[in-house]
Amino acid sequence: MRRMAANPLYPLIHDFLTDYLPLKRNCSPHTVKAYRTALNQLLDFAKEQKDIRLAEVTFDMLDGGMVAAYLDHLENTGGSVQTRNHKLNCLRAFFGYAVMRDPSYVVYQSGILGIPFKKTEKAETIDYLSEKAVTALLRQPDTRSKKDIRNLFLMILMYDTAARVQEIIDLRICDLRLGDTPQVKLHGKGNKYRTVPLMADTVAHYNRYRGLYHAGVPDHSQAPLFYTTRKNICSPISDDTIRVFLNRYAKAAHQQCPEVPEKIHPHIFRHSRAMHLYQHGMDLTLVSQWLGHASLSSTLIYAYADTEMKRAAIEKATGNYFPEVSGEESPYDINDDSVLKRLYGLKP
Question: Which of 125, 142, 309, 314 is spaced 20 to 30 A from 235 at the CA atom?
């Protein structure tokens, strides 16, 4: 069996993701997942660029040019400037850790530090659905199907609570409390919790869903609220599973309501709910608390987006009345990328 040459990259990645971040830095699982995703994407990009096996990717290949090319690719395929900067920050942190472990790795770190963060616009636009589009989307599941009943309730809960997709995935049965004031406890970023009230229609859909998926399970159960079962193993529903059925429903809804994009992302429910609350008169401070934002500045984007919507409407209504202005080494041979990633902590 051919042996893989000694490669310090993967042992360092393993220690970074499984020891340094969660134990020494006390980072939350969400934070560790973000770093893992950035490293995964960079490694896969380098593998494709070099046309080699994942096990053959080394520090030498992850120079400033490769990282810059990866970031450009990320942005050119739909990633925002904020996403690009976040990935760069994750990669800088890893290379900083490598230098902390062995100062000789500074030669690799220097190329990454030479890549600047991109400036972002002070005000951004956001993707959100109109209330008509949300209604069209929620009409797509076939409620004669058990799985579609699950999917419908998940979408309703995501919209009603304006929760992040990971917050939905992390929910347990005990997090929903149907007392005098029905509410759900969400575990958000920074290991912070917030409680959000549930509307009556959401509770009705929950009761139907629970009767099908959690019949006889006590209210205090720690079982995942949304789950999938494969080979008799029950696991929390995955982000990928949610994205697949959302896009299937979006494609169908687009035929009935062109306001629904043919492809959507789970976060669009969060944006849409926040925008609708704001448009119906909820104060931005309350919207900020609802969303679990660390500061009000993060919520101001909805005020800007609403102003842009009003400007566009006024512009459309104004028409063409105004005249134009002119003149202006391992003992194993690792061939399976999935096995390699699990071995070094790149996959949970």
Answer: 142
